[in-house]
Input
Amino acid sequence: MAARNAPTTVDVLTDEAHRYYRENGFVRIPQVLSTSETERFRAASEELMAQHGPEIWGAGEDEVQVHFVAQAWLKHEALRDLALHPVVTQIAKRLAGAPLRVYSTDVLLKPGQKDLNTLPTLVHDDETGLPLDGIDRTLTAWVALVDVPVERGCLSYVPGSHLRDAAHRQTHMTSFAEHRPIEDIWPDYGWQPRITVPLKAGDVAFHHCRTVHMAGPNRTDSPRMGHGIVYMDAEATYRPGTEDAHISHMAPGDRLDNEKFPLV
Output
């Protein structure tokens, strides 16, 4: 098979895709990365995971939702290139309709079931865990570095959930002990449709920080390797919260406008 060349933003972000994102809060953009780029970023992610040892979301060492390495773009030059990839960042800015900064990037690995008892990723939105104010346009780019069919634990989204009113959102947590099941916050959640979005290697799925989503377990013997990049509103400010280890030295209300949060 011939290697694919990287596309341009014009090639991949159609008016229809842009409309779909505004209405549904997520969109899959196929083949954003070339074959060679995907292979480079996957190798870098595997290298980083081996070097740093993963942190774990899950019930314990033997039951995991996902292994991750936080702030990966600050730990590997290739993953810095991914966070600042010209097509990925231009799509993110056009979807947001506003200037953005890099907030964080994580290597995200669901091991194969032959290695561990992998669990579904819990139902959540990203706003709840972000230690930030002023994030109406903030979004995540979920980059598939391998094929991610349904059985390998791809993401599912609740369409339009980014537009639900504030009374049905847990907008902030200062500790994970404050987490509330979504059914307690949004009584109609159980009647909402879900759309499951399998991805091919090189695809990128973008979702708004308020879009409710989840992922299934990896039921295959091959690991699911992806990369999550959060692009925040350029004027966002710090509010102490759950995911703030790398910015806890800042004062509440400070803008995140230094070299660790570059404009894209």
Notes: Residues 35-52 form the longest helix (18 residues). The two ends are 33 Å apart (CA to CA). The longest strand covers residues 100-110.
